[in-house]
Specification:
Elements (H helix, E strand, L loop, with lengths): L1 E2 L30 H17 L6 H20 L8 H20 L5 H10 L6 H25 L1 E2 L1 H27 L3 H8 L7 H33 L5
Antiparallel strand pairs: 1-2
Helix pairs in contact: 1-3, 2-3, 3-5, 5-6, 5-8, 6-7, 6-8
Length: about 240
């Protein structure tokens, strides 16, 4: 296990930076962070627009329960444990795509029907797309949490982030099943969005896993390139 001495940031590194990544210092300065303000405003406006007259209000509410908890958690922990602007951007994009699915219900999302016509699929795969993007877009923020919170780097941090993505994906599928068990048949079908596929949960988890593998592979690659370029850079006098 290799320590990663990047958290908390040193006093000399606490200057304002518009775009930050997990590799550098971050500050809890929302009032001065125009990029984070823009990301937050864009997501809030999209969410509010999609909260108006959803296709199925009850399903919309169920789909947003975890969003309320997660966004609240990010807000409460921001000052004590801020993340990079790249992580917040990825999370906002993913949550925005989820908001679209919650508005239309996942099985009726227009983008999914467009894919059906384009690729000649037999079902609306928007839910599968979002499960894949969960692994692809949420692995980086989770990796950053592991890296900053545990001071671990290298393969330990990648492995923990990968395991957390798989755990969250599996737990979500179990929560879906549990909620569906207490709903009426129509409400359960709208919430689950299986569209007749008995292996829907397994396929969703596999897609989230694939997204995580791609994301973490890109992180490994960029970290390796960064280390190589750092070694190749001539010393400054």
């Amino acid at each position: 296990m290799v320590p990663s001495p990047i958290w908390p940031p040193k006093a000399a590194d606490r200057g304002y930076r518009l775009f930050t990544t997990a590799a550098g210092p971050v500050t809890a300065d929302f009032a001065g962070n125009r990029l984070l303000q823009g990301i937050t405003l864009a997501y809030v406006l999209l969410w509010l627009a999609l909260a108006i007259a959803p296709v199925n209000r009850f399903d919309w509410f169920l789909e947003n329960l975890l969003v309320f908890f997660f966004v609240g958690l990010l807000a409460v922990t921001y000052r004590a444990f801020p993340l990079s602007s790249l992580s917040y951007l990825l999370l906002a994009v993913f949550l925005g795509l989820h908001a679209v699915g919650a508005h239309y219900t996942y099985s009726k999302t227009p983008f999914g029907w467009w894919l059906v016509e384009l690729l000649e699929w037999e079902r609306n795969h928007y839910d599968r797309v979002v499960h894949f993007l969960f692994g692809l877009m949420c692995s980086y923020p989770l990796w950053e949490v592991v890296r900053r919170g545990t001071r671990l780097a290298g393969w330990c941090s990648y492995g923990i982030a990968f395991a957390v993505v798989l755990a969250f994906s599996g737990i979500y599928e179990m929560l879906e099943w549990g909620v569906a068990m207490i709903l009426s048949p129509d409400a359960a079908m709208a919430f689950l969005g299986t569209q007749g596929d008995v292996f829907d949960a397994q396929k969703d988890t596999v897609l989230a896993t694939g997204g995580a593998v791609i994301a973490l592979s890109l992180i490994v690659l960029t970290e390796g390139v960064g280390r190589a370029s750092g070694k190749a850079r001539p010393p400054t006098s």
